[in-house]
């Protein structure tokens, strides 16, 4: 069934491409390249020779719509499968090594001095990918109520930590007077927010693993 | 000292169930049952009911929140065994 639908999709795509190519050829040879070369549609008057291009355009639009519907269906089925499986995703802990890409954020200091580009500072967010190491350790785990509770608790703590950093950075850097330079203030703010997002990503995975595996401290008697 | 006493281990063993078997019956992980038995995890009402049905014992017999009553009952049981 799945193979059949793939075959149908490809077949329809090929038909659409052939019709578009044929009608474009017809338009170039017999219709002064109308609808192929740019034209002013505000003074457009219908001609019978335009019909192949109009039909192929409608077919192409319908094919795109069909692809969109298929994509939505696939996403819905995938989500339903995930919801009913009650198991966590399979993640390779080695993906945590992607966290080292966070060091590319330091390129920002070089690009800023070279051509005032500050975008590379955003790459500090990649430090958050170290969290994949802990997410991988919990892959294919049954998501029972304790897991869900721990996940909420971990996300709450991670969000709280990140939001606190962003809050204090906003208050402090919002004065705009870091080293008397507004650009430096802006860069410091980008770095802080990127690191806060990275911390959020990392902490939500790390704390979930910790809550799930560590023994709870017993309260002292008294 | 935990907030409650859990006597699940005793009743589970009486039913001749392993932690894994009980976990599968009630749809949680073995680690969750392990923590429950150590009274390190406070279960939801649904899980408590499921466990109670699985071992065939009322909830209030498995999870005891009135620790004073439990301690006095435990002491009198021990004294009775000695006599």
Global outline of chain A: flat
> Separation of termini of chain A?
66 Å
Decide which structural class fits the backbone of chain B: mainly alpha
Tell me the major beta sheet of chain A: none
Instruction: Round the Cα radius of gyration of chain B to an integer and report it.
Output: 13 Å
For the biggest sheet of chain B, the summary is: 2 strands, antiparallel
Mean of all residue-level pLDDT scores of chain A? 89
User: What is the averaged pLDDT score of chain B?
Assistant: 85
Number of helices of chain A: 6
Helix and strand content put the structural class of chain A at mainly alpha
CATH architecture of chain B: Orthogonal Bundle
User: What percent of residues of chain A are in strands?
Assistant: under 5%
Proportion of residues in helical segments of chain B: 55-70%
The number of helical runs of chain B is 6
Would you state the CATH class of chain B? Mainly Alpha
Q: Rounded to an integer, what's the Rg of chain A over CA atoms?
A: 28 Å
Strand content of chain B: under 5%
Instruction: Indicate the percent of residues in helices of chain A.
Output: 55-70%
Q: What spatial form of chain B do the alpha-carbon principal axes imply?
A: globular
* Largest interface, C-beta within 8 A: A-B, 13 and 14 residues
Order of helices and strands of chain B: EHHHHHEH
């Amino acid at each position: 069934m799945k193979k059949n639908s793939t075959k149908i999709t490809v077949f329809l795509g090929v038909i659409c491409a052939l019709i578009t190519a044929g009608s474009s050829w017809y338009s170039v040879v017999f219709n002064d390249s109308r609808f192929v070369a740019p034209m002013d549609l505000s003074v457009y008057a219908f001609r019978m020779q335009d019909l192949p291009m109009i039909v192929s355009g409608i077919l192409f639009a319908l094919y795109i719509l069909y692809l969109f519907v298929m994509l939505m269906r696939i996403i819905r089925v995938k989500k339903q499968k995930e919801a009913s499986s009650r198991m966590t995703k399979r993640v390779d802990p080695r993906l945590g090594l992607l966290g080292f890409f966070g060091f590319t954020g330091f390129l920002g200091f070089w690009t800023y001095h070279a051509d005032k580009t500050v975008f590379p500072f955003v790459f500090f967010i990649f430090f958050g990918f170290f969290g994949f190491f802990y997410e991988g350790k919990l892959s294919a785990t049954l998501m029972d109520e304790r897991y869900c509770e721990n996940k909420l608790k971990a996300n709450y703590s991670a969000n709280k930590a990140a939001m606190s950093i962003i809050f204090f950075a906003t208050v402090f850097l919002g004065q705009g007077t870091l080293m008397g330079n507004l650009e430096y203030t802006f860069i410091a703010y980008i770095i802080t927010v990127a690191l806060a997002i990275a911390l959020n990503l990392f902490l939500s995975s790390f704390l979930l693993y910790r809550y799930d595996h560590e023994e709870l401290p017993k309260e002292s008697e008294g | 000292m935990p907030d409650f006493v859990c006597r699940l281990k005793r009743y589970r063993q009486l039913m001749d169930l392993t932690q894994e078997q009980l976990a599968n019956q009630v749809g949680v992980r073995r680690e969750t049952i392990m923590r429950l038995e150590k009274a390190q995890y406070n279960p939801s009402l649904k899980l408590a009911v499921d466990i109670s049905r699985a071992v065939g014992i009322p909830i209030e017999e498995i999870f005891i929140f009135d620790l004073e009553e439990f301690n006095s009952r435990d002491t009198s049981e021990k004294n009775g065994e000695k006599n």
